[in-house]
Amino acid sequence: MPASAATDPGEVSDLDLVKRSQAGDTRAFDVLVTRYRGRIYAMTYHLIQNETEAWDLAQEAFIKAWRALPTFKHDAGFYTWLYRIAHNVSYDWLRKKKIQGDGEFDDERTEHRIAAGAEATPKGDLAPDTALRNAELGQRIQEAISRLSPEHRQVIVLREVEGLAYEEIAALIPCSLGTVMSRLFYARKKLQEQLHDVYETSL
Amino acid sequence: MKHPSEEHDLIRWIDGEMNETERTAFEEHLKHDAALATEAQKMRALSDSLRAHMPAEMHVPHADYFNTQIGVRITQMALDEARSKQSAGLGGVLQWLRQPWFALAGAAALGVLGFFLLTPETGDASESMILSSYTPNTNVQARTYHDHNADATVLMLDGLDAVPAERKISGINIQRSELEPELASTTMYNAQGAAVFMISRDALGNPMISAR
What we know:
heterodimer, A: Rna Polymerase Sigma Factor, Chain: A, Arc Repressor Mutant, subunit A, 2 domains, 9 helices, 0% strand, B: alpha+beta, four-stranded antiparallel β-sheet, elongated
């Protein structure tokens, strides 16, 4: 499952903050929101492919988490628990919108700055043409993902962004391991088809 | 179309989900199947590109406002819950948000929003608790405390430039607020029940306060 954000020595632990939040301390919960908003927003954005909706859904996930805090038993990490809530909120939204694999390009999609310290390439200074190619490829990838069905988009995000194991994806969705593998295979095939020219020329 | 088991093997190899024996056998198979080897290479390259261009953490637009809005909604939920309990049991004796909580120093271009919740359990009906605050000017920090002698909630604005003595500062006594989820806005009402202003977001998601 997704790991918690690394905490600096001396930083208040998730456990302490969650216990204080469960006692009604909204300032403690605000610290948790600040700690995880970048990761939750990234997940909702990759699933929804729309900045405004992703922002709202990330917020909705935190609200639901606050409401559900009394039921949080500390048997899983807070982020893992929060992640499940955010995933369910986003996926429910996707299903309601009935976004299909041949959906239209989303004009509202905008480029994002990546949070400081976040893992992402390219690293270091790149030549302008290389940076441009990277930006173009990133744009093409986002477009291709936005055209995937909710089910295919879901497994791609869970696997490629969150790095979940097949068993974890199957438990979260939920579905069988075979379904996870089949969806991953066809999701990647569809992405390959849409990015065919990129792969023929540069990969 | 490939047999499902072949598709699954390919996926498991790309994702590193095979054990050593399976991986060795599959890579041996790839040596004798050029088409499959090419597809495996392309699919692995695609996977690498996806990971590179889909960061696990992103900058949240208007991050401070993101937190503040969550605070507003939590406060509203607490108010609604307490109000329903109150109306069911105590006949609505509580008066919400008694303290003046919003101050504007217009010329200093500063706005501070605070969200108060009266806590019936304290037994001190005049004490409010600040749940959240928001200062558009990030150089200014808002902090509050309850002054028992004055029977008032005091709002401190650290970092605010000195306000000339002749400048007028207005305060508004907010008695209640209503959240409008569909509009993602909160409307504030004064003692006469008139809507005073509304907090919402503009099209770009920036915080916006509208006079009513």
